[in-house]
Automatic annotation (TrEMBL):
The gene is bioA. This is Adenosylmethionine-8-amino-7-oxononanoate aminotransferase. It holds the Pfam family Aminotran_3. Belongs to the class-III pyridoxal-phosphate-dependent aminotransferase family. BioA subfamily. Signal peptide: none annotated. It comes from Neolewinella xylanilytica. Pyridoxal 5'-phosphate binds at residues 112-113, 246, 320-321.
Amino acid sequence: MNASDLAFDRQHLWHPYTSLRDPLPVYPITSATGCRLQLADGRELVDGMSSWWCAIHGYNVPELNDALHRQAERMSHVMFGGITHEPAIELGKRLVKILPKGLDRIFLADSGSVSVEVAMKMAVQYQNALGFPERHKFLTLRGGYHGDTTAPMSVCDPVTGMHQVFRGFLPEHAFFRRPPGGYQSPVDPVYVADLAAFFAEYAGRTAAFIVEPVVQGAGGMHFYNPAYLRVFRELCDRHGLLLIYDEIATGFGRTGQLFLGGGGAGNEISPEGEANHRPDIMTVGKALTGGYLTLAATVCSAEVADVIGRGEAGVMMHGPTFMANPLACAVACASIDLLLASPWEQQVRCIASRLTRHLRPAAQSSRVKEVRVLGAIGVVEMHEPVDVAAAQAIFVREGAWIRPFGRLIYLMPPFTINEPELELLCRAVVKYV
Ligand SMILES: *Cc1c(COP(=O)(O)O)cnc(C)c1O
């Protein structure tokens, strides 16, 4: 990769959320192994991002490479219409085993945003089949993020999601303020009462309530008490709304639990019964393939699937070209097997305590508003927006790959990261703030 390649990139290739008139600098990476990214100039960076929540096992993982090679030699892709194959069936079996009980009807989508599109269409088709065609709006929370295609974007935070630019194009849904911050902060009865009033106002026109449970990711890295999940479930039941959990970011152990939506291995949320927390529809993606290939899933209850099947359309109205891509499914199976065979709970707990310890000095800075940690997610919230290019130049000089957004600098490293690597990441953050 030489200077003219980079000039070509600057002129022709859009990167996520950038301008082609004045693009932010990009760093050429030539390979990645373990928790390290190799820069083209020979320097190595410790990865603090897991490539946006995905690479939970790190990079160049022998087990995932093997799964990919073996599947490529048999069949890289075949249409899923009228055909099935072992990688899809094997992945389905694994998901049924680890997802919250009762969520066992699976739609394999080709990205997180598409899985949210599918979840929203499921909810609309469900209400339609029940005889409520007027129930096609969605309720959601401010500060949420659900993807970049149109329907998911319409339920992203209206401000950070730039809804004013797309006014008239985006469908309009109803937003309520997010629960107060803090995993352990007590449930606020005023919030609960106001949310109940909000539901009562909109329910008659609404198909579903869609939220990221406990951790709002790209909308602000906001953590709230899991006790609110029971409130969401109760309000949805009272008003006949479906409850959709978007666990694309939180799924597969990132928060210290495999999933937040009730049930499943390692879930400690619900001593009084997982049903209190179980959504009707749930989306997973990102870490599903360990960061190797794009794949997501929309899972729902048998009841939702059955009602949709009895509706006017008679079928679930979606079917992407690359649905259930065999390469992606095979790697997802290997990634889930690797995760379940690993001491992931201990790894995440360990990362949490190290993040807490090594990010603590950042709280001393007058530029820092709050430092918070949940599972393998460490967040430093600044008072002012971060200058991304300037911050990244400092991080890279320190040997760290960290990409801030807005007022947030955050770390969510692969679960396999060791203590010196994690310390290096935290030191880079502390140095910057
Ligand atoms: C990343 C993300 C999405 C979108 O997934 P893509 O694969 O980028 O389309 C949706 N919801 C949440 C919570 C996410 O973190």
